Amino acid sequence: MKKHKASKHQTKKIAKNATPAVKKEKAPPIIKTAVIGAGPIGSILGAYLARTKHQVTMVDVLKDRLESIRKIGITVAGVVNFQTNVSDVTHKISDLKKLALDYIFICVKASALPAILRGVKSAAAKHTVIISFQNGLDVEQEVGAALGKHRVLRAVINYAGNIMPEGQILMSFFNTPNYIGGLSAESNALAEKTAKFLSETGLTTKFSTEIKKYTWEKTVLNSALAPVCGLTHLKMNETMALPQTRTLAQEVLKEGIEVAKANGYDFGKKFYSGALEYLNKTGAHKPSMLIDIEAHKATEIDYTNGKIVEYGRAKNVATPYNDTLTTLVRGLEKSFTTAESIKKEKAAEAKAEELRQPAPPAGPPVRMGYGPPVRWDNAKPLNRGGSAYDMPVKDKNLSGQTPAGPAVKPKPATKESPVKVATKGSPVRGAAKKKHPKPAKPQRSPASSGAKKAKTANERHKGAMALRRQKKKALVRAR
To answer: For the chain, how big is the Rg over CA atoms in Å?
Structure first.
């Protein structure tokens, strides 16, 4: 039976009715990231990144904090509630070099930048993008100058949190969105891509070409409450509830707005009222400056209120409130370093005093074959001329044993002899003789003894002089 070939029309019909093949969707690529700084900001960021199955390496100098993250992960509570595991931790930035990272997020205090930038530069690969995830003015300029502006981005963070005693992070608020931008046209393209990447993790982030304006806005808001809370040890809501501290925060806020406007960043007429409303909603949150002061650490005052004072002077804008707060916080920082230096000086003095103390006398060295040494102050004095001392004797205190005395030859045993009776004129042999006491020698007084010695010396001198005179006379006669 012959097989008929299907026509083109039938082939198309069969192909149309056939079940289409299911295309396998590619899994999103795993992005390699590192978060330097495991404080509240860095821990929250690391938790969001790890939750979306990206590779995250947490870096911090606090080994206890890293060990806690490695064992139990990161738990975020408050605004959101979730837990995620982060097993890759290290306290050395140099360990990041072998990972070929896509992103490095710098989440340390601005005051700690000089200590880490060199390590970040050596750890970053050619394609690595570095994001300044920090507070304060001009932080990104410092990072860009060290690592290259073409790959450095600046983020403005609008969330905050605190580390709880149990190790979990309390996320106090998140006023979406965060903002991110580049330092150049080339880095702006990277910033737009990074904003999309962060938004996919759940941290809503918006790209902006005016990142500097958002940086000023955030700094002005932070500078209004952070130093007041730090100096009074009040939380944000407590500071805004007390009339005196609320008035102080308002004046600081007004100065910041004026300085920003003088430098080309006008936030509009409604910004002041909106800022007050924002500060009222901060809640029972401790700003990082208060936490630093409680821990006697350096604060970010030079990058917040200090920068406002600096920019104000450049534009002849008076900033008495910001200037006063900056001076007070710097004074506190000085007291911390002074107290620490005094503590170190006292420890050094105690160690030096311990070294100055005389060491306990060591035991005498053992001389092989000669026994322990002896002391000359235990020698026996003799009066035989020359040296006043004979050979020294062993000291039982040094040898540890009492020296043996001279050997005594034992007397031979004798037989008992009969007792002889004495006869007249013949004394009994072995009878005890009567001892007569010797007359006592007259003792000379020290005075008489000295006088006699002096007399003897005078006589010797006279004799020597007489002999010398006789020799002279004999010489004269011979001439």
So the answer is: 50
Does any domain span residue 4?
no
Q: Tell me which of 209, 244, 275 is where a domain ends.
A: 209
Give yes or no: residues 254 and 184 share one domain: no
User: How many Å from the N-terminal Cα to the C-terminal Cα in the chain?
Assistant: 178
- Read off the CATH number of the domain in which 152 is found: 3.40.50.720
C-alpha distances in angstroms, 384 versus 388, 452, 456?
Answer: 7, 22, 21
Same domain, 236 and 128: no
Confidence check: pLDDT of 442 > 60 = no
Average pLDDT over residues 305-334: 96
In this structure, the answer to whether residues 58 and 193 fall within a common structural domain is yes
| Amino acid code (one letter) for 235 | K
Asked if 204 and 196 count as a contact pair (C-beta separation under 8 A), the reply is no
* DSSP per position, 106-118: E-S-GGGHHHHHH
Q: How far apart are CA 149 and CA 184, in angstroms?
A: 7
Residues 6+ apart with CB under 8 A from 234: 228, 242, 245
Residues 6+ apart with CB under 8 A from 197: 31, 103
Nearest in space to 65 (alpha carbons), one of 138, 168, 178:
168
* Nearest alpha-carbon partner for 121 in 144, 99, 137, 141: 144
The residue out of 160, 177, 209 marking a domain boundary is: 209
Higher-confidence position of 466 and 390: 466
Structural domain span for residue 137: 29-209
